[in-house]
Amino acid sequence: MLGLHRLPRTFRPAWRPRNPVVLPIEMLIATIVYAGFQLSTGMVGDTRDELVGSPALIAVSVLALIAMTAATCVRRPYPVASYLTVVAISVALILVLPERTLGFTPLYWFAIAALAIRVTGPRLFIPLALGLILEILVSVDTRLSFPDAAAGPGGTIGVVAEQVANLAINYTVLVALGKYIARGRAQELESEAALERAEHEHRQRLNEALDSERRTMARELHDVAAHHLTGMLIQAKASKTLITSNPDQSRELLTGAIGHGQRTLDSLRQIVGILRPSTPNQNAPQPTIADLPELIEQSRTSFGHIETNIAADSNNTDSNTTDSNNTDSAVQLTCYRIVQEALSNARRHAPNCDVCVEVSDRSSTIEVTVTNTTTSAPSDPRASAGQGFGIPGMRERAELLGGTFDAGSSSDGATWSVHARLPVDGHISRPLEVPT
Hints:
With about 425 residues, the chain is an alpha+beta fold.
């Protein structure tokens, strides 16, 4: 899964500046440049000479442009009022200036597009209709005031039709532009929201995967380390008490402790190799049911007697033996870990007890039962208790595969049993979703 990266909050399209004053100032500059171009090229006839001879008219025009700029600066909170203010000032300029075309400024066009961006429905069409009617009336009146204006093609009706058509086209283009920008902004906001949702879901899945991975790692490390290290500790303590009275037995116990230590180191290396991604050992074999006899043999010195009945052992020649190839690898690993943890708990809480390990095949399920019985008083819980990860870890392993798990003691407290039922073809019901 590809990683999702959060869009920076400072990202804004070029046509959507953060400061609402930026575009109005740009439109004011464009208006001044446009008016200068019209006056310098003679597009408006002798209007330049009239303006030069009337400083008051220039001052009024400048104030009007500043007022229009200020009105467009508040277009975001007050779009309708901003537009109507700009229309009123534009109408005034058309009536005051010698040439009506000077009243149609980039600020005026910008106000129409800005209204279309932020307003829809009647709040859009009513102000637009009002502005359009005012502009048509003023334009037609101004046009008809010129000598021989009605003598052209179509007469007065032709003049009115021409002005209506021009203004309607201008309004249509500017409104369409505003709606196009509004649609782009809506799509941008929708995309940002979708990315935020996807990022949140991705982060949630990642956290769940990491949490599940941490639980798996903790469970594996606990199952391996706790089993062998407990054996090491018990054998080392026993050898300490026998080092003077029975050196040969003490030496044998120390040899067993060294073997437990080496097996712990090998198991931890195997787990690290499996958990490390993209390494040659990532598919290293995990313990299976066939490895249980070796595990039990390693534990014999810690118990008074161990009885085994592993019907699912691939080395068993009985006709009822389960073929390990038909049992899911996760189920086999879980069987091994449950037996391993149960022996570790028995060694810790009831040393030298008698243990019975049974792994039986029930057609579609595999049952694992580990029972330990002791005739001596139980050890002090405060001295032998671990961190409480063993029973929850075994239960979680069984439930992940769709199985069941029970553990408890007999009424007299002399027997403790662990019992798990696992489906032969069980698969982990909550697979990890580790991103790649």
